[in-house]
Structures are given as structure tokens and as C-alpha cells.
Specification:
Layout lengths: L1 E3 L7 E5 L3 H13 L4 E5 L2 H10 L4 E5 L7 H11 L5 E5 L4 H9 L4 E4 L4 H22 L2 E6 L4 H15 L3 E8 L7 H15 L2 E7 L10 H12 L3 E5 L6 H13 L5 E5 L12 E4 L4 H9 L2 H4 L7 H11 L8 E9 L93
Parallel strand pairs: 2-3, 2-4, 4-5, 5-6, 7-8, 7-10, 8-9, 10-11
Antiparallel strand pairs: 1-3, 11-13, 12-13
Length: 428
């Protein structure tokens, strides 16, 4: 494998070519004369490993190579990263080769011998195109919780899934949970959990059990939103018996009025009115979620709702609406593009925009109000029709709702503990 790494690179190019004379031409034109960083390998299997392990601006691949054709490599690369520009080159441009390249969405198709001027123009154009597409598709996620461990219980699986897709992730915790333990210890636990998730932590110091729905809560959330610039927000549900959780939701609705996607997670103190319509499969992320929650060692022995079997069983319950064994559930407040200044909250300026392929949400149908006792885990209402759901897939909601009124759904909320609506949740 050959690497040419100029001081000021115009882009990182992975060259997959078993003809060393042709590879040397590309290296001389792009790296030596025009400032691109070029990494060359003659092995398509090695190219897949490099593509998975590192970030690239462009892949240039030959078609006819031993072990794997360039078209097969193109197909595998497309599945791994739909935004990575790929150019196919060949000395034998047949109709079948051209059709295969087009079917797998090659960004360019060139015949050998390559002309230096065209090669440089192609590389520069595709690098710029790929960078713009990735920037437009990148999500920035902010999760807001009232106390240490709130976000980790409700949404850490989804946050890890976001992080694995390359999205920016931040957590805002409004208090240090003084009513539940030593503040310094809980702050350290929050930092450890954020590291496991891969999130940037914003830790504030509002009074535990006395968080206001007005200022300073609104100002704090507004400041962090200004710094993070999130495209997605996760926050407490209004359907919660804990006053800090409800007030955090209310303050976030004011501060996040221009954020296009807002989802509410389930807390241990959520009421039976928590009715989600968005489900994130977390089979691959469950271990990280449990590790993040286990970071709160000062609370695990005190709070039954932090027990791993309860966290796991709740995720198992919600998997009824997401293929796989485990899922997290969210109420949908808004699910669209950013709201322009001057537009009413909940009224997106543009149609919803999703990065990558988006599949319809399962049609779970209308479920009558259950009788007492039917909202516990194990409830067997109508299940959604089977459908393909990859790990971490986020099922979009059928429609948006006005702020403060999550989209309606027939799904009952599994109880995480025995607190009844109207009761007072123990200090977090």
C-alpha cells in the first residue's frame, strides 16, 4: 500500500487499482502535482477495510481486479456510506460494466488511459460534492434532562446510534441531583456516562426538585442550543409526575421553538399517558446504554428503576414496534425541517428532511382505551405488520403534533415503577 500525504491536502483519495503503472499515473497527477492525499491499495478487500476504518473524500476504483470486481466494491461501499463519492475507471468499457456502475450509483465513469486534466477536474468536483452532501446530511443532537441519569435512562441507546452514524451528540443536564446524593460524585458520574455515549456534556446547577419552567431554565437551554445548533432534540415528556421533568419540557418548548425535530423520552416517573409513535431499535446499542446507566453507581443501589433487568425489559417491550429485540420509544412533538423565525412553533418552513433512506412507520392502527391493568408490560394489543428495520433505525411518526401535545397513538406506556399519576416522584 502506498500513501502520498501532501502538507496541504485538497482531499483524501482511496485508489483501488491492481495495475501499478495506472496507479502511478493517478498518484503523480493527483498527489504529486495537485495536492491531494492519495492512498493506494491493489486489494479490494483491503480497500473495504480502509474505507470502514478511515474517512475519505473520494474512492477511485478499477473494474477488473482479482477476488472482487470494482462494481462489487462499489456496491459494498455504497451500503456502508451513501455519501462517499466513487469513480469507476476501466480499460474495457462495455455496456454491462457501464450499466453496473450506473445501477450502483457511481458518481463518475472514466475510460483508460486517463487524461490528467480530466482526472483532476473529476477529483476536485467529486470531493466538493461529497463534502457538501455530508455536511447537509449531518445531524446534531441535543438531549436535555433535569437530573443526572435522566437522559441515559430514556434516550442513551438512540444517542449511541446517532453517534455511530457520525452525528454530533450533546447532553444538557440542568441540575446536579443534590437531593439524590453528593453533587461532586453525581457530576463525575454524568461525565463518565457522557464519555461512554460519546457525547459532549453541559452540566448546570439548578436546584434539584425546584427547576422552573421559566427563567433561568429557558435562558440556559437557549444558550446551549445557540452553542450546539441542534437539528434534533430529545427531552422529557409532559406526561410525567415529576415537576422538574414537566418544567424542563415546558422550558425546552420555548427555547427550542426553531428546532425542527423534537422527541420526548420516557422517564421512570412517566404516566400512562406517555404514548410514543417513534421507535429506535437499540439491539447493538443496549450494552452501551447499560454501561452508561451503570456509571451512576451512587444511585444504582438506591433506585430500583436503574436495575439492568428493568431497563432491558422495558426496551424489550418497546421492540414490539421495531424489528429486533430492544428499542427505545419517543413521543413526537415535531418531525420536520427547521422552523423559520416568524413561523409558529410546530409549523416547519419546509417539508421534513431525512438523511438516507426513510421507511414508513408501522401502522399500528387505533387501539381502544385499555381497561385498568391493561397498560402493564406484556399488554398484547394489535402489533404492527412485520417490516425490515436495521439496528438503530428510527421509525418516523405518521404526523406531527402541536407543541405540548405529542402525536396521538394507540400504544400504551409500560410502567417503569409503581408510581401512580398525581403522586410525587422521589428526588432524582
Amino acid at each position: 500500500m502506498i500513501t502520498i500525504d501532501p502538507v496541504a491536502s485538497r482531499g483524501r483519495v482511496l485508489l483501488v487499482e491492481d495495475d501499478f503503472e495506472a496507479a502511478n499515473l493517478v498518484i503523480q497527477v493527483l498527489a504529486v502535482r495537485n495536492g491531494f492525499e492519495v492512498v493506494h491499495t491493489p486489494d479490494p478487500a483491503d480497500a473495504l477495510r480502509l474505507a470502514d476504518a478511515e474517512c475519505w473524500d473520494l474512492v477511485i476504483t478499477d473494474v477488473e481486479m482479482p477476488g472482487m470486481t470494482g462494481i462489487q466494491l462499489l456496491e459494498s461501499l455504497r451500503q456502508a456510506d451513501p455519501y462517499l463519492p466513487i469513480a469507476v475507471v476501466t480499460a474495457h468499457a462495455t455496456v454491462d460494466v457501464a450499466i453496473g456502475a450506473l445501477r450502483n450509483r457511481a458518481d463518475d465513469f472514466m475510460e483508460k488511459p486517463l487524461r490528467p486534466v480530466q482526472l483532476v477536474a473529476m477529483a476536485a468536483g467529486l470531493v466538493a460534492k461529497g463534502r457538501a452532501a455530508r455536511l447537509a446530511a449531518r445531524e446534531v443532537v441535543l438531549a436535555i434532562g433535569a437530573h443526572p441519569d435522566d437522559v441515559e435512562i430514556g434516550a442513551s441507546g438512540a444517542l449511541v446510534a446517532h453517534r455511530e452514524r457520525g452525528h454530533g451528540v450533546a447532553i444538557l443536564t440542568l441540575s446536579r441531583g443534590a437531593r439524590g446524593g453528593a453533587e461532586d460524585m453525581r457530576a463525575g458520574e454524568s461525565a463518565q456516562a457522557a464519555r461512554i455515549i460519546g457525547a459532549e456534556l453541559y452540566l448546570e446547577n439548578l436546584a434539584d426538585t425546584s427547576i422552573s419552567e421559566a427563567d433561568p431554565t429557558i435562558s440556559i437551554i437557549s444558550r446551549v442550543i445557540g452553542e450546539v445548533q441542534p437539528t434534533v432534540i430529545y427531552v422529557h415528556s409532559i406526561h410525567d409526575v415529576h415537576q422538574d421533568h414537566r418544567n424542563t419540557f415546558q422550558a425546552a418548548m420555548v427555547a427550542a421553538r426553531e428546532v425542527g425535530r423534537i422527541y420526548c423520552f420516557q422517564s421512570p416517573s412517566a404516566t400512562v399517558d406517555f404514548r410514543p409513535t417513534r421507535f429506535v431499535g437499540i439491539d447493538e446499542q443496549l450494552d452501551a446504554k447499560l454501561q452508561a446507566i451503570d456509571s451512576f453507581g451512587s444511585q444504582v443501589a438506591l433506585r430500583a428503576y436503574l436495575e439492568p433487568d428493568l431497563i432491558r425489559s422495558t426496551a424489550r417491550y418497546w421492540s414490539r414496534f421495531s424489528e429486533g429485540r430492544y428499542a427505545e420509544a419517543f413521543e413526537v412533538i415535531r418531525d420536520g425541517a427547521a422552523v423559520a423565525v416568524g413561523h409558529g412553533a410546530g409549523q416547519p418552513e419546509h417539508a421534513p428532511v431525512q438523511a438516507g433512506a426513510v421507511r414508513p412507520a408501522p401502522d399500528v392502527g387505533a387501539v381502544p382505551d385499555p381497561q385498568p391493568g391493561e397498560r402493564e408490560p406484556g399488554y398484547t394489543g394489535p402489533a404492527p405488520p412485520p417490516g425490515k428495520r436495521e439496528p438503530g433505525y428510527i421509525a418516523p411518526a405518521p404526523r406531527s403534533a402541536e407543541p405540548g401535545q405529542p402525536a396521538p397513538s394507540g400504544q400504551p406506556a409500560p410502567a417503569l415503577h409503581g408510581t401512580e399519576p398525581g403522586g410525587t416522584h422521589a428526588p432524582a
